[in-house]
Design goal:
Elements: H1 2-10, H2 38-46, E1 55-59, H3 65-70, E2 77-82, H4 85-97, E3 107-111, E4 125-128, H5 134-150, E5 155-159, H6 170-175, E6 176-184, E7 194-201
Parallel strand pairs: 1-2, 1-4, 2-3, 4-5
Antiparallel strand pairs: 5-7, 6-7
Amino acid sequence: MGRIIFERRLGIDTEGIVPLVALGLAHRDRVSYTPSDWFTVRSALKALTVRPDDVLIDFGCGKGRVVLMAARYPFKRVIGVDVSGALISIARRNVARNADRLRCKDIALIQADAADYEVPDDVTIAYFYKPFTGETFAKVVDQLLASLERRPRRLQVIFTPAGHPWYHVDAFRERARPIRTWSAGSLGDTPGQTPIAIYLLEARPRISR
């Protein structure tokens, strides 16, 4: 009930599980929409030092909960990507209803298959909350690394929960350095601890000729 009251106060709808089969988007790699816990998102964002040129992307943004939370910080831009047009439409309504509360005004909500989405070269923080698995996750890691090769920079990756086996595909494990892992509590009716991990994704050293 506490979470529902919180959402009503903000005039938004980010709660609930939405099976992708109900949207006609079932795929072996895709995971049904389940939002990150509010307290977990807040804990993850508070761990960052957000700079004016930082750009955050949420893969599998669904109804936009993480996008809304991130846009309360002074990011240059916040991006949400989701395969479902229906969920993206809800996310856009949620953002519009809270526009006056958001510090970041440049918000892009994009309907796309993350496996085919070219990561913009200004992204500095990527957020994952169990959006997909397997080959799709591996392709997204490849897109992140390709962006990093085009424009070397500090690129942090946040996982909630941390430690899920499919995070550790070879390309990610070889190029990511753990920065911090901790646990956050939950907001509302389901108290518990959610492990969070932040990694630094590193570009390959350039070879001088």
